[in-house]
Amino acid sequence: MSKELILLEPRGFCKGVIRAKKLVEKALATAESPVYMRKQLVHNPQVVEALRLRGIKFVEDLADVPIGASVILSAHGVAPIVYAEAKNRELKVFDATCPIVAGVHKEVARRVRSGYTIIFVGHEGHDEVVGIMGAGGDAIRLVYSRDDVLTVDVFDPQRVVYFTQTTLTLKETKLIISFLQDRFPKIIGPDTGNICYATEERQNVVQQAAARVDLIIVIGGKNSSNCHRLREVAEERGVEAHLVESASDMKREWWNTKNVVALTAGASTPEQSVQEAVSYLRSQGFSKPWIMRSAIVGEVTGESSMHSSKQYRACQ
Hints:
Elements: E1 4-9, H1 15-30, E2 35-38, H2 45-53, E3 57-59, E4 70-73, H3 80-88, E5 92-95, H4 99-113, E6 117-121, H5 127-136, E7 140-143, H6 146-151, E8 160-164, H7 170-183, E9 191-194, H8 197-210, E10 215-219, H9 225-236, E11 240-244, E12 260-265, H10 271-283, E13 290-293
Parallel strand pairs: 1-12, 1-13, 2-3, 2-4, 4-5, 6-7, 6-8, 10-11, 10-12
Helix pairs in contact: 4-5, 8-9
């Protein structure tokens, strides 16, 4: 008897990543070679390697980009000081910042000008967080735990606003926001922070799947925040879950005693990586995959064909 395999939808590239990849194509088509990229376009090793093979040169700092050259800025966004440095070095900038992240940057800057203390909920050191913290300057504070909230200092408790990293889980975000509201009753901000729609949808279908599967495998970069959050959402629902970058990272002992396995992927994972995982699992005795969509789109179907995910408003 074959084991059951379920493919979760949506998965893979969100609109922000699709936009970033189109911008790369524009840079390669119009800019003089070589084209440089500051840090990683997105947190996925297959995407990064594909760009490297096409001649893009990756750097950690704009100081490593020759004056007047073309440079792509990652989808995670950058601090204002990076734009200033690019201008000083007369660089031709292709800005791949996700529109949702860019919107947070804009709103943070507006609140700073209005005299608010900004409290940002996020993971220290993540590229998105580094950029947002730079946008807030001296007026922004980073928190990620109850202890952080209890000890954070603000200019005026009556003028505090919060924002959040776009790739957190809804559960953790709501909890931190509740701590903030307890300490600063006048605090303002979006109800669930700035969780992007693509992240929310992927988490939603993982929660649905957890009720009927024995194992969830997330395909994506080990440095991808939204991939780690998908794994955590599954584990919080009591389901064993693993994050792998490719099919070669899978271990057969994971499903020795498991009959129903679900596959999902982060917002920067190429569909090819998912299909390679499907092929490997088929070779291990799994059935032709079924499709499970988010409840917002539809229920579990009996479709056995694999098809592209519905387009979502994630990064409009």
